[in-house]
Write a structure and sequence with these properties.
Strand order of the largest sheet: 1-2
Radius of gyration: 22 Å
CATH topology: Ammonium transporter fold
Number of helices: 15
CATH class: Mainly Alpha
Shape: globular
Number of domains: 1
CATH architecture: Orthogonal Bundle
CATH superfamily: Ammonium transporter AmtB like domains
Helix content: 55-70%
Number of strands: 2
Distance between the termini: 46 Å
Largest sheet: 2 strands, antiparallel
Order of helices and strands: HHHEEHHHHHHHHHHHH
Length: 444
């Protein structure tokens, strides 16, 4: 039977490899070397965010869990990249099927159908596919912070694979594909320039659901759980800040005025978020912490992500400051309620994403709103766009929460997701990987 199964698998792969190219090079399109160079750079910058996230998360967990936590980010690079090439890109950017639930195009399987394709923007479709693939990597990696220090590596890998197929890919299609229903909602669609809804709300909500379903870490919150290396966390935050320029400015899919606008908004919002958090901590706790600075940077970056292409610097400044306050309050509320979102994935990514996706409506630049008004026949304004944004956020939250819970239950009941109490005491490094990050062994 084993040989028969392998024969089927090999046959399927060979069949996919023989599929005809469904998306030949568009007539008249030629490579724009400037845009392509920037998109290649942006792709590398977004990939840099993954080791940056690994450092950020790894420094926040206990010594016995450093490698296990960092492996969550690096494993996503392998698992999600393979799935993206095999079928992820097809599900995100193919023509809608099953009522538009996700996309599908057999020519996109294994990326075979784009071997000669140049997009209208003058960028080879291979580059666009690889750029978008980095978003599919970092989104499930973000989720890992919510259940850090208490999940098995095998269960995690299976969960993110299913989550990518059934949560990320459909959301990406709805928001960014030309025939996605959120992309076409209202006069100009739901605005999500670089992933406030697709990346941050989806990962934040999933993180919250996972934290509630799996329960607290052993000993939380009574036992002190000191971070292993805050220096590494701060360096990770710095890499995320740098990588975010590719994340946001690369989403213009060009090297143009819109790229400059998005890059400027990114820098302004990150700085405003960091400053806002330091001020809040100074008033509330009497001192500003390094971890608080890093949290403020992320809050500002998350909030401006959906808005980077449509707001001026003043709007980015406002979003950064507002997000720092909202995310700070969300974390304080978590501490009072006692649920164990280990590394504040929902508090920063979930709430920051919601803040940016909704409040951007009040800071849209006039030229963008004029175009939307013209498309609507002269009857489109801030409140109309606010309704579209709120509807898109509600859809993302509802779908993500429901599907995430189903996947968590299925994975936990089959292969197992929550690690045993004994394994949690020993640490992920030893139990899941047979290693120790610092060559040290801790009993608690």
């Amino acid at each position: 039977m084993g040989r028969i199964r392998w024969a089927w698998i090999v046959g399927i792969l060979l069949g996919l490899g023989a599929l005809p190219a469904a998306c030949p090079a568009a007539e008249g399109n030629s490579v724009d070397t400037g845009a392509t160079a920037w998109m290649l750079t942006s792709t590398a910058l977004v990939l840099l965010m993954v080791p940056g996230l690994a450092m950020f998360y790894g420094g926040l967990v206990r010594t016995k869990n450093v490698l296990g936590t960092m492996m969550h980010s690096f494993a996503a690079m392998a698992v999600m990249s393979v799935l993206w090439v095999v079928c992820g890109y097809a599900m995100c950017f193919g023509k809608g099927v099953l009522g538009g639930w996700f996309g599908w195009d057999s020519g996109y399987l294994l990326l075979r159908g784009m071997d000669q394709t140049i997009l209208k923007a003058g960028v080879p479709e291979y580059v666009f596919a690889m750029f978008q693939g980095k978003f599919a990597i970092i989104t499930p990696a973000l989720i890992a912070g919510a259940f850090a220090e208490r999940v098995s590596f095998r269960g995690y890998c299976i969960f993110i694979a299913l989550w990518g197929l059934l949560v990320y890919n459909p959301l990406c299609h709805w928001v960014w594909a030309a025939d996605g229903f959120l992309f076409n909602m209202g006069a100009a669609g739901a605005i999500d320039f670089a992933g406030g809804t697709v990346v941050h709300i989806s990962s934040g909500v999933t993180g919250l659901v996972a934290a509630l379903y799996l329960g607290r870490r052993r000993g939380y919150p009574l036992r002190t759980m000191p971070p292993s290396n805050l220096v590494m966390t701060i360096m990770g935050a710095g890499l995320l800040w740098v990588g975010w320029f590719g994340f946001n400015a690369g989403s213009s899919i060009s090297s143009s005025l819109s790229t400059a606008q998005a890059l400027t908004a990114t820098q302004v919002a990150a700085a405003a978020g960091a400053l806002g958090w330091m001020l809040i901590e100074g008033f509330h706790q009497g001192k500003a912490t390094a971890l608080g600075f890093a949290s403020g940077v992320l809050a500002g970056l998350v909030a401006v992500t959906p808005a980077a292409g449509v707001v001026q610097p003043s709007g980015a400044l406002a979003l950064g400051f507002i997000a720092s306050g909202v995310c700070y309050l969300a974390i304080q509320l978590k501490n009072k309620l006692g649920y164990d979102d280990s590394l504040d994935v929902f508090g920063i990514h979930g709430m920051g994403g919601v803040t940016g996706a909704i409040l951007l409506s009040f800071f849209i630049r006039g030229s963008w709103m004029a175009d939307a008004t013209a498309a609507a026949g002269g009857s489109w304004g801030v409140w109309n766009q606010l309704g579209v944004q709120a509807a898109a956020v509600a859809v993302a939250i509802g779908y993500t929460a429901g599907m995430a819970l189903i996947l968590l239950v299925v994975v936990n009941k089959t292969v197992g997701l929550r690690i045993s109490s004994e394994g949690e005491m020993a640490g992920l490094d030893a139990v899941c990987h047979g290693e120790h990050g610092y060559g040290l062994v801790h009993a608690s």
